[in-house]
Adenine nucleotide translocase lysine methyltransferase
Amino acid sequence: MEEDSPEEFLAEFKEKHLGAWGIVQITAGTGLAVYAMWAGVLMPGFRKVPLRLQVPYLPASKKQVRNVMALLSGRHGNLVDLGSGDGRIVLEAHKHGFGPTVGYELNPWLVRLANFHAWRAGHYGKVSYRQEDLWKVDLTECKNVTVFLAPSVLSLLQEKMEAELPDDALVVAGRFPFTEWTPCRIEGDGVDRAWAYTMQAQRLPAGSAVLPVPKELKSPV
C-alpha cells in the first residue's frame, strides 16, 4: 500500500468535517499529544547527550530570526546552523540568498519537522537538514555559523570554533552570547538579542589592537 503524499494528506484533512464527536476526541487527546511530543520529539535527542550539554527545544521567535538575519546582512556563501531545531534559521537564510544552507540537529523528529517546514514553504530539496552530532561537524569550510544554544554548550563550542573556523567566518549567537568573545555587533534587546562575532578578532592576542569592523557588518546609517 502506497503512502499518501503530503499534498494528498492535507487535501483529505481539509475535506473532512470533524463534527461534535471529532472535536471531543481532539480535546480529550490533547494531554496525550503533549506527552507524545515530549517523549517522541524531545527525548530521543536528549538520550544521546550528556546532561550538561542538553539544550531543550525552544524555537526561535520571529524577532530573533529577524535579528540574526540583520547581523548576516551583506554576507554571502554557505551557512550552517548548529542545533537547528525545526530549521527556521536555515530556511530563512536560504531565502536571503545564502547557499548551501545546512542545519545539524541530533533529534530525528526535529529533522523531519524541519523538512516539512521546507516543503510547506516550497524550498524542499533546496536546504539541507542532517541528523548529526554538532561536535562531529567539520567547520573548516564554514563561512557563516548560527547557534541558539545554552551557555554551558557555548563555552565548549567556542574551543571547537576557534580551532576549526577560518578567519573570515562570522558566528551569530542568539538568546545567549559567547561570554569570552567580543562581539562586533549586537542586534535586538532582551531574549531576542543576537550577537555577531568575527573569528579573526577572537584570535587576536590579548592587548592587540582591535581590527576594524568589516563594511558588510556595520549598521546602516
The first strand starts at residue 79 and ends at 82. The chain has eight helices and seven strands. The radius of gyration is 20 Å.
